[in-house]
C-alpha cells in the first residue's frame, strides 16, 4: 500500500491546504475583541498569542513556496513582508485573513513537482502543503474552542489529515510541537481522533 506521504502530490497537498484554510476562516468569524485574552487548547497561549503564531505560520508557508526553503532556526517577523496585510498586533484576525488569501494564491499558482528545503531537509512541495494543512486546520479548531464553540472538522478532511499525521508525527514531535496523544473511545469520529492524536482533548 502506498503511504499518504509518498502519495501526496502537489495538487493533492494544495487541495488539502485550501480545505483546511476554508475551515479555519470559518472559525475566525467567531472571534470578537473580547475573546483575545481567552485561554486556548495550546498550552501557555491565549487567543491573541495563538493568532500571532498562526500569522507566523502562514507567512512561513508563503515563503516556503516562493523561496523554496524554510529555516526553522530563524524567528519569523510577521511584519517584514512587503504585502499590506494590516497591523498584526492590532488586528490579528484581519491580518490572518489577508495572509490566508495571499498564501493560498501563491500555492495555487505553483507548477510542477518541486522540492522545498525544511531546515536543509528536502521535501516534496505537495507534502509541505499537506503538513501545513494539518497545522492550519487544528489551529482553526483551537480558535473555535477558545471562543467557547464546538466546531468539529469535516469528516472527510479530518480522515485525510489523520492518515497523514500518523505518518509524519512521531515521538520526537512531542511534547514540543504536539502534546501527548489523548485516548478516545472506539466510537470517536475522525475529527475527535485527529485532535486526540495531536494532543487535544476533543
Give the helices and strands, then pairings.
Elements: H1 10-28, H2 47-67, E1 69-70, H3 92-108, E2 115-118, E3 121-124, H4 125-146, H5 155-168, H6 190-197
Helix pairs in contact: 1-3, 1-4, 2-3, 2-4, 4-5, 5-6
Describe the structure.
The chain has 202 residues and is mainly α. It has one domain: Four Helix Bundle (Hemerythrin (Met), subunit A) (Up-down Bundle), CATH 1.20.120.450. The protein is built from six helices and three strands. It has helices at 10-28, 47-67, 92-108, 125-146, 155-168, 190-197; strands spanning 69-70, 115-118, 121-124. It has a three-stranded mixed beta sheet with strand order 1-2-3. A hairpin with a 2-residue loop joins strand 2 (115-118) and strand 3 (121-124).
| CATH topology label | Four Helix Bundle (Hemerythrin (Met), subunit A)
N-to-C SSE string, H for helix and E for strand: HHEHEEHHH
Binned, the helix content reads 40-55%
Give the rounded overall mean pLDDT: 87
Outline, from the CA principal axes? globular
CATH architectural category: Up-down Bundle
Give the class from helix and strand content and strand pairing.
mainly alpha
For the biggest sheet, the summary is: 3 strands, mixed
Task: Give the strand order of the largest sheet, numbering strands 1, 2, ... along the chain.
Answer: 1-2-3
DSSP summary, beta strand count: 3
Give the amount of beta strand, in percent.
under 5%
